[in-house]
Amino acid sequence: MSKNSELLYKISDLTFAVSGKIILKKINFNLKKNDYLAIIGPNGAGKTTLLKCLVGIYPCHRKQIAFNTVPLADIKRKELAQKVAYVPQNDGRRLPFTVSEFVMLARYPHLSPFTSYSATDKAIVYEALEAVGISRLHNRRLITLSGGERQMVLIAAALAQQAQVILFDEPTAFLDPKYESAIYEIIDKIHADGKTIVMVTHDINAAILRSTRVLILKEGKSVFDGSPQFITASDILDRVYEKSFAFIKHPNSGKMIVVSGALA
Predict the structure, then answer these.
(1) Based on the domain organization, do 78 and 209 belong to the same domain?
(2) CA distance 28 to 4
(3) Which of 25, 77, 111, 154: disulfide with 220, CB 3.0–4.6 Å?
(4) What is the pLDDT of residues 35-52, one digit of tens each?
(5) Which residues contact 25 (CB under 8 A, 6 or more apart)?
(6) Where are the alpha helices (DSSP H) in the chain?
(7) Whole-structure pTM over 0.90, yes or no?
(8) Do residues 106 and 158 lie in contact, with contact meaning Cβ atoms separated by under 8 Å?
(9) Mean pLDDT value of segment 54-74
(10) What is the DSSP letter of 236?
(11) Which residues have a Cβ under 8 Å from the Cβ of 83 and sit 6 or more positions away?
């Protein structure tokens, strides 16, 4: 098996329910090393729930999710955190940390009990801040940052965690075009550097232009898993979102992209 075809995740008939309500229904897909998987779908489709299952926040049956062939339920949380990082939506919580202090917390999977941060840990944190372009903010308190800056801090923490796979949940939600573009460029660079990316997004064009694969969920079911360009050459979006879409050619990439709604 080649390096870039190494199987990381295997999801088999993943079903998940909360208080008797089924959120995910028999989801099946694989994730390989250096994949860039975008997950799209209507509100309530189960996208965030799927991410939380992949990172172990929501426990699942041991046969439903495997990482490196090992059932996720059999992997200790600290060990899993060395392999998978989760970047949640920025919810605006007022956390009492400076930027450096918060990003340093992401080093916990690599620390032994009762040990303090080493010079290596501090160097890794600095490199993570540099990678997302916010080293100048290292002494700022999180509560003083803009929404875009806080999102970059979350991404820096994921990098400091040094995980092989990074899961992003709506990384550009509520951001202005400047930060939206900057964060997508950072994620692209992380992928180019060899990380495996899973990104939940409502930005269909970002999924088309940036990912290597698209998984579409509707009502907890997987209704498409394949090439981003296929979704612009079919009526899959019309059926999933129950509205009409039109497409035009992107002026730079030449790829077909979505126009919101049908053209008059």
Answers:
(1) yes
(2) 20
(3) 25
(4) 999 999 999 999 999 999
(5) 15, 219, 220, 221
(6) 47-54, 77-81, 99-105, 119-131, 147-160, 177-192, 204-210, 236-241
(7) yes
(8) yes
(9) 92
(10) H
(11) 67, 68, 75, 163, 164, 165
Range of the domain at 103: 94-162
Instruction: Check whether residue 157 and residue 170 sit in a common domain.
Output: no
* Domains: count for the chain: 2
Residue with tokens 């309530």: 44
State how far the Cα of 26 lies from the Cα of 114, in Å rounded to an integer.
Answer: 42
Given pLDDT bands bounded at 50, 70 and 90, which one contains residue 2? Answer: very low
pLDDT for the residue numbered 264? 44
* Tens-place pLDDT, residues 217-255: 999 999 999 999 899 889 999 999 999 999 999 888 888
Cα–Cα distance for residue pair 117/114, rounded to 1 Å: 10
82 contacts 165 by C-beta, under 8 angstroms: no
Q: Is residue 43 part of a domain?
A: yes
Which residue, among 158, 222, 220, has the nearest Cα to 190 in the 3D structure? 158
Q: In the numeric block, which tokens belong to residue 117?
A: 């941060």
